[in-house]
Write a structure and sequence with these properties.
Length: 169
């Protein structure tokens, strides 16, 4: 039986993924994988527990397959930015995927939701990773002294950090 050339297989893999019917450009996601994805700096046991929890719930409950890995990547890329002080960026696309990729407060909210839904052992491992990320976020961002005057800025401490206003001008 003839087999396909490796270049033909690679060309097929590099084709753009089809979008789901009725979705816009921001909500195009690949179908969930049947196996847990590898999450950097977490054990395979924790990654499997996260994937199980993301796959168990409907997407409208805040978690979907790959959301935790995306949120961790958002936090790491934000903290990898150069400079002594960082200012949070707000995204106004109004879809969950764009908010998750661009706003670290939304990403941190999703990670907090994932932590509370995990079993004890994976929860401790994810909390240890988040403790380091939170320490860096606390150290490199500036508190907003007027956050208490804005009713939408209630909640966790990362919502009361100073946002960058230059991109609004």
């Amino acid at each position: 039986m003839p087999r396909k050339r490796p270049s033909a297989l690679r060309a097929r893999l590099s084709l753009p993924q089809p979008m789901y019917a009725g979705t816009d450009h921001c909500r195009s996601r690949r179908p969930p994988r049947p196996w847990p994805t590898r999450i950097d700096r977490l054990s395979s046991r924790t990654a499997a527990a996260i994937h199980r929890e993301e796959s168990r719930r409907p997407c409208d409950e805040g978690l979907w397959p790959g959301a935790t890995a995306t949120a961790l990547a958002t936090c790491r890329s934000f903290l990898a930015l150069p400079g002594r002080r960082l200012y949070l960026q707000r995204d106004y696309c109004a879809c969950e995927q764009c908010d998750l990729r661009n706003d670290i407060a939304v990403a941190r909210d999703l990670l907090e939701l994932a932590v509370h839904r995990l079993p004890p052992w994976p929860r401790r491992e994810l909390e240890a990773l988040l403790a380091w990320l939170d320490g860096e976020l606390w150290r490199r961002t500036v508190p907003d002294p007027f956050a208490h005057r804005q009713p939408h800025r209630t909640g966790a401490w990362w919502h009361r950090r100073l946002y960058d206003l230059d991109h609004l001008l």
